[in-house]
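_Backbone structure tokens_
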Amino acid sequence: MESFIAQQAQSSASRKFMTRVYGWMFLALVISGIAALFTATNEHLLRLIFGTRFGFIVLIVGELALVWYLSANIRNLSPVAATTTFFAYSVLNGMSLASIFFVYPIGNIVNVFFVTALMFGAMTIYGMITKTDISSFSRYFSMALIGLVIASVVNLLLKSSGLDWLISIAGVVLFTALTAWDTQKVVRSAQYATDSDAYKNVAIFAALNLYLDFINIFLYLLRLFGNRRR
């Protein structure tokens, strides 16, 4: 009887953990979308962020600082502080994403978003049900991510459309695979989850990883299939 009660309690804690992870991730996407739309329709913010190169650089540095702060201090933050930092990042990221409304038609953006959601959903399901230990590929994922960053920086100088196309394909493949890996990590964490503050923070960090996977898949797909405005 005690064993059954313990199993039920763990099952309940696992469900709460999964709900938190995907709930926080979904809410962050909504916040980013609202921030992007608000920024794109606010002339003052547009001038502040995109009017000069300095404004956009400050925004990006702020995003990187928040991700670093959350990653470095996730074990020590209170759940409220961790959640606030995550949502602050989603606001800043949404503001930086406002530029896509001036590069691509809204129809393209909506279509690519739904394609991204389908791909993300499919890889999430795969990550939940696969018996393959995806963590065994983690070294290759890290190498691919470093290579992707280096290639992107190089192409800022070369401005090669062919290399940009290859980078975009590689980005979609890499972050699609990372979605399955991050999902598998969420499932494994859920097996031992409790209602403690520590696991609430783990849920926030897992939501951040999945959020970044989704955003990157979306942006790389947009670069591949979006019809840029003339």
User: Anything to note?
Assistant: The chain has a mean pLDDT of 93. The two ends are 69 Å apart (CA to CA). The longest helix spans residues 2-40. Residues 74 and 205 are 7 Å apart (CA to CA).
